[in-house]
Design goal:
alpha/beta; Arc Repressor Mutant, subunit A; 11 helices; DNA-binding; Tscrpt_reg_LuxR_C; Rossmann fold; phosphoprotein; DNA-binding NarL/FixJ family response regulator; 6-stranded parallel sheet; globular
Length: about 230
């Protein structure tokens, strides 16, 4: 089923990239979808912020490396708790292990993909982010999270810590979220309504001190609630 905004409206998207061909290509790709409309296109981070404020898109697709202000700075502005507008962000980059990727996660970005991802993956990611679901390139998820967890240690790593923070059902949701499940998949696994899953998530994020589903997954890896299998070299 196609993911649109919560009330079924067309997903309004801002695309920002300093490379004209990439900017035009991503814009054309998304605009061709019946449920997606590209409402603004920016060539740098400063312009992206101005256009986000004037057009108030549902999703901002941002290049990580841009002049004036990079994608991380833009994401931090758009994702902060008091942002107006607060815009979920999907980061695109050519650098799969760029330090800026970790900055994007910390800034509150909802997703991260490589620019050479298949077109249907990029389209699907925009829909997922608009629907409130975080996304990472599946081929890179384990490497990115494992590297992130090894570089960042923001919370005490104790096996019991989550039990003192979350309810048993919130922990169940977190574990399934860390497996990459959507709200619908989590609801099916726990045999509850999707609205119940959303309620658990809304209560869980402030308890963990995070702003997005993706940050909650990172928190779970940092605290060894879930672990990343060794993928070898």
């Amino acid at each position: 089923m196609t993911d649109t905004t919560s009330d079924g409206r067309t997903i309004r998207v801002l695309v920002a990239d300093d490379q004209p061909l990439v900017r035009a290509g991503v814009s054309a790709l998304l605009d061709a979808e019946p449920d997606i409309e590209v409402v603004a296109v920016a060539a740098d981070g400063g312009q992206a912020l101005e256009l986000a404020r004037s057009t108030r898109p549902d999703v901002a697709v941002l290049d990580i490396r841009m002049p004036v202000r990079n994608g991380i700075e833009v994401a931090r502005e758009l994702c902060r708790p008091d942002a107006d507008p607060a815009v979920p962000t999907l980061m695109l980059t050519t650098f799969d292990m760029d330090d800026l990727v970790f900055g994007a996660l910390e800034a509150g970005a909802s997703g991260f993909l490589l620019k050479d991802a298949e077109p249907d993956v990029i389209i699907g990611a925009v829909r997922q982010v608009a629907a409130g679901n975080g996304t990472l390139d599946q081929a890179l998820t384990r490497r990115v999270l494992r590297e992130f967890a090894s570089r960042r240690s923001l919370q005490p790593v104790t096996g019991d810590r989550v039990d003192g923070v979350l309810t048993a059902r919130e922990r169940d949701v977190l574990l399934l979220l860390a497996q990459g499940m959507s709200n619908e998949e989590i609801a099916a696994e726990l045999v509850v309504e999707v609205s119940t899953v959303k309620s658990h998530l809304a209560r869980m994020l402030p308890k963990l001190g995070v702003r997005s589903r993706l940050q909650a997954v990172v928190w779970a890896y940092q605290n060894r609630i879930v672990t990343v299998p060794d993928l070898g070299t």
